[in-house]
Amino acid sequence: MRITSTTPTFTASAPFRLFAMSLVAMGAAVAVYGVNAAPERTWPNLLLDGFYVASLGVSAIFFLATQRVTGARWSASLRRVPEAFTSVLPFAAPLILILFFGRHVLYSWTHPGELAHEPAIAGKVQYLQVPGVFGRMIFVLAAWIFFAWLFRRTSRRQDENPELSLALHQKLTNYAVIFVPVFALTLTLAAFDWILSTDPHWFSTMYAVLVFAGTFVQGIAAVTLAVVILRERGFLRESVSDHQLHDLGKMMFAFSTFWAYIWVCQYLLIWYGNIPEEVTHFVSRTNGPWLYFFAVNPIVNWVIPFLVLLSVRSKCTPRTLKSIAILLLCGHWLDLYLLIMPSVWSAPKFGLFEVPIAAGYLALLYLVFVRSLGQAALVPLNDPILAYEKLQVIAHQPPIRRKLRGVEQ
């Protein structure tokens, strides 16, 4: 890895890239073998890991959008990190689209007559049609890729065109305003079409909000982890302060609590109502070996992060932030595992299919991330927010008194 004194750039070491490529190759080989030898075990893993990677990419766009819409200035110097995560979407899209070939394993509604006894008012028979579901899938992925490209392209243009910095800054803000409702619509479609429909007889109006909460926490945790590691290795040491780490810690603290609020609300409303067609989702997840995973889920995703990040000091400590970020990234994977797997499996499975496929997806994410991170300066150039802050620092510095040829100046 290397860093320059003025405009730092990033290059991942060759051994790390080689190791990641070997994991991708191993995961691909196991997936190809599993699709033919054990499709009922492989396709759910492809859905889980594909959605995990894609949701990380789109949550990075949403992270950028929230900073623009709210007028936040603290994150300007680290925005290249979420921009790099958005680059994974063009690679995640085909990994999601191949689920079309495993639709009969993943989605029981693709079997003739599966929804014949559903009430017509529910509209599930009309909504869950193969052309419609996968047509919406293409639309969602295309929208995510388009906005990822738009944000990244405009940001790089700002580096190359200092005279257009203010105009491009306003463009990024306008794109963010447009993306927020697009994100709400597309993530809702993705949550219902790709995940909830694995159990087509169950429904919850809070489901999409729960998926959103977990997705955003995942994005914040990924950005935090990358920023802390880059800062520790010297790449962002001069541009990311303890105050910015504190802000990232506050975001993880706040939105993990928001996830817990939605998770508890959905569970309590269904438990209290005790309506037979509504409780099926939680009955399968709170019985047998699934119960242990169900109990661990809120502990990993909220209890531990809440208790650890409660103090101000912990939110500013890089080692603590890094540990909690890793914990939340693993916790979101577990949360998705519990949303998907009990609908298609009778018992949890971890072994020769789950580990290599998940490792391959994560290695692909790493390769795309470091490649994108090295294609532009780590600290944005010509950003008006950074320029303003630099002027403020200079303006508040005490005047320098120096002597030149005997004349005090």
Any overview of this molecule?
The protein has helices at 14-37, 39-69, 80-86, 89-97, 103-106, 124-127, 130-160, 165-195, 207-232, 242-273, 276-285, 290-308, 312-316, 318-344, 354-373, 384-395; strands spanning 403-404, 407-408. Helix 8 (165-195) packs across helix 9. It is globular. Strands 1-2 form a two-stranded antiparallel sheet. The chain is mainly α and 409 residues long. 38% of the residues are buried. It starts with 13 loop residues before the first helix and ends with a strand. It is built from 16 helices and two strands. 71% of the residues lie in helices and 1% in strands. The longest helix has 32 residues, at 242-273.
Number of strands: 2
Structural class: mainly alpha
Helix segment tally: 16
Give the terminus-to-terminus CA distance. 43 Å
Using the alpha-carbon principal axes, give the shape: globular
Strand order of the largest sheet: 1-2
What does the largest sheet look like? 2 strands, antiparallel
Instruction: Report low-confidence residues grouped into runs of 5 or more.
Output: 1-5, 400-409
* Average pLDDT metric: 91
What sequence of helices (H) and strands (E) makes up the elements? HHHHHHHHHHHHHHHHEE
